[in-house]
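BUG-357 | component: ligand-complex export | severity: low

The export step for glycine jobs runs without errors, but we want the raw record kept on the ticket for reference. Input record follows.
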Amino acid sequence: MNELCVGLEERSYPIHIEYGCLDKVGEDLAERRIANRYCIIADSKVAGLYGDRLFDSLRQSNIKAELVTFPAGEASKNLNTFAFLCSTLAQKGFDRRDGIIALGGGVSGDLAGFVAASYMRGIPFVQIPTTLLSQVDSSVGGKTGVDIAEGKNLVGAFYQPKAVYIDSGVLETLEKEELLGGIAEVIKYGVIRDAAFFRYLSEKRAEALALNTKVIETIIHTSCTIKAQVVAEDERESDIRRILNYGHTIGHAVEAVSDFSIIHGKAVAIGMVAAARIAELQGILPAENKDEIVGLLQDYGLPTAIPPQFDRKKIKKYLLADKKIVSGKVAYVLPVRIGEVIITDKVEETLVDKVLS
Ligand code: GLY
C-alpha cells in the first residue's frame, strides 16, 4: 500500500492510499491490533454500497464487527444521532478495548469520530472515507463533531484516528457534484502550499475528472501530504492550521445563506475567489494569480461568483458570526501568490463590501 504518516508523536497514524484497499482493511487491522472488535458506523446509503465488502475483509481476518447505520445526510450530524450511536455501543457491550470504523463521507467521519472521542472517554477509531472531500480533508487531522441549531460543527473534539484507509476505487460511485466539491478542496491545497501541484491540476483536469487511477491517487496523496504536514505543525488550529480555512470564511457564509442548497465544496470555491479578490484589492496578490485561481476553478466546472439572488447583507451577518472571529475581527486567509497564503484580520470592510457587491 502507498502509505503516508501524520506525525503526532505517540498519536501518529498511517494513511493508506490504494485502489481496492477496502478489501485489505481486515488484513492490515489484524496486524495493527488496534481493537478487539469494531462497530462500523455508516449511513444507510454507504452501508448498502460498501458494508458487505468491508465485512468480508474483516471476516477473512477473523475480526468481529457490528454495523450500525443512520439516515444519510448532514441533517443526521446532530446530538440525537450521537446519543443513539453511544447507546447502541453500550447496548452491544462495547468497551475500551473495542473500536469504531467510520465508513463514509464527512458526516460519518465527524459523527463516528466524535462518538469514538466520547464513548467511555475515548475508544480507538479508524477512518475509511468514501468521498473525495473526506479523503483529502475531513478524515485526516482529527476534527470530529456534530452540528447544533446555533451552527455547524459547534460541538466536537480534536481526536485522531489510529489509521485512515483511502480506496480511490470507491469514488466511482460518487455523484459528479460531490466529486467537484472535493476538487475545490484539492485546488485549495495548491493555492495555499504548492504551486507545482496547482499546475499539475491544471494539466491533468480531464484525467482527474475521469478518475484516472494514477492521477486521482497523486491528487489524494499530495493533498493528504499537505494536510498531514499542516496538522503535524499545529494540531489544534491555534496558528498555521488556519490556512486550511482558505476560502472557508466567505464560503461558510455563502453556504449558510443558501440554506445549504450549495454544497460545501462549491461554496468554498466561491469563497476562494472572494478571498483572492480581497487580496488583489489589498495589493498583495498579482491580478494574474487571481485570474489563474478563477480559471482553474472554472475549468473544473466550479462556481466562482456569489449567485446574484443571495442577500449580501445576510452574508455579511454570517461573516461576523463566523466562529473564527477573534476579538470582533474576522480572520481571512489571503493568497499572496500561487502556493502561499497569509492569515490576517486587517481587511478593510469596504474591500469586503466591494467583493460582496
Ligand atoms: N478542514 C480544515 C481542517 O481540518 O483544519
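Assignee comment: Attached the raw record above. The domain at 2-173 is CATH 3.40.50.1970 (Rossmann fold).
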